[in-house]
């Protein structure tokens, strides 16, 4: 009755966790010398690359899903028995003797795509962190430790196949982030952002746990595949038929039980909507993104958002597919409202990070849109868009991090004439913005939107496609306006004596080297995705979520 552990399957989060411990020990015992700060960054980067290498090796292996933390078969002898659980209210014939043992940790194509995305983005965030930490006003050891803890959660979450592990992994992504947000001591905006992020995290966790508890109460299991089978057996049309079955409800209990499942679905959806900043739970995004250090904003916009979508897709597709009639229209409406609110709020912004914050909200609506229609490829379209978006958005944040080293205000006017002061940074930012807008030659964004449009139309969501088209046009304004500023010559600042003041270029402040490397990495990725979008399309094969 002992669970076996496949250490190869859990190697990526294990490497990250061990690296986090190592960073904390090195920070505690190494002398306070100038070389310690870059050394800790190098250790963090090595651990992240090591975990990414293992994920790549698991993808190349291609010998079927890796499963671990599985229930010993001896505990599945009784019909419907669930270790540590109760008899299910909805009878499930697939959980009887002979059924495959459910597993809590499964490494399949879905896991590999999201883990690879999180780790690749993590490499960029580590580089941006090195640029930000060069000023010395933030404790380095704690920063890298918390960042690695977030990556552990982001890699573990897509592999989670039971509700308990999924919620714990989701919190492991969230909790270190608001600690990161508040690490800049004696900074009012940073402290305010940390408190807002903490409150949002607490509320979203409470709402999610309410929904999870209802799902567990109605199905008697925490495993996603068993939950899906139980809900299929006890769906609204089958409740009366299963009333006579063992542990099944009476026909009189059919309607109340169906209502409980509906409430659970709505609560879980609301909890994840907080995590991905979807309407009506989006109001925290602008203030938090502006208040936190720029690398944390990049982490929130890509890694945290990807983890939220991974959890949402897992719950909807792997556990609640039989309840699609309940959540499909809700997702479609939320997607339409989210992309509209995000774009309209972005139109008013004159601060770079706030603009990217509301742009990120709008992009969440685009990612959600395919999940709101009946299409077998909807999940794949959402993941494809998320991969394209991650590269484009990280490219923009990389340049914003570099510019913030010599222009701390972060206003859009600070980017006026950037291409003349620092041509590589200016061109990289302009190309990322054009891609986000979906305009040539930034074909990465155009291909991403085409994939989403096609799935929405194939799923019969004509009205949602019209809303997305209108929002795409709205988004063109602020992306193009920012791009025009980059190519607009700026007048040279004049000192009190009348002499022209020199504006620092890319190498004018410490920490510009790692930021420049991050810009180069993201620029190469965006250009590659624009020239060969099949690189992303081939990463997202059909049937991503394997049976666990």
Automatic annotation (TrEMBL):
This chain's source organism reads Streptosporangium fragile
**Enzyme Commission designation:** 7.1.1.-
- Mind telling me what this protein is named? NADH-quinone oxidoreductase subunit N
Give TM regions.
Answer: 6-26, 38-60, 110-128, 140-157, 163-183, 195-217, 257-277, 298-321, 327-347, 383-406, 426-448, 460-480, 511-529
- Which Pfam family is one of those matched by this entry? Proton_antipo_M
- Compartment annotation: Cell membrane; Endomembrane system; Membrane
Function comment: NDH-1 shuttles electrons from NADH, via FMN and iron-sulfur (Fe-S) centers, to quinones in the respiratory chain. The immediate electron acceptor for the enzyme in this species is believed to be a menaquinone. Couples the redox reaction to proton translocation (for every two electrons transferred, four hydrogen ions are translocated across the cytoplasmic membrane), and thus conserves the redox energy in a proton gradient.
What domain of life does the UniProt record list for this protein's source?
Answer: Bacteria
Question: What binding partners and quaternary form does the record give?
Answer: NDH-1 is composed of 14 different subunits. Subunits NuoA, H, J, K, L, M, N constitute the membrane sector of the complex.
Q: Which reaction does it catalyse?
A: a quinone + NADH + 5 H(+)(in) = a quinol + NAD(+) + 4 H(+)(out)
**Protein encoded by which gene:** nuoN
According to Swiss-Prot or TrEMBL, what is its membrane topology?
Answer: Multi-pass membrane protein
Sorted alphabetically, the keyword list is: Cell membrane, Membrane, NAD, Quinone, Translocase, Transmembrane, Transmembrane helix, Transport
Residue ranges occupied by any NADH:quinone oxidoreductase/Mrp antiporter transmembrane domain in the UniProt entry: 160-474
Family, as annotated = Belongs to the complex I subunit 2 family.
PANTHER family (UniProt xref): NADH DEHYDROGENASE
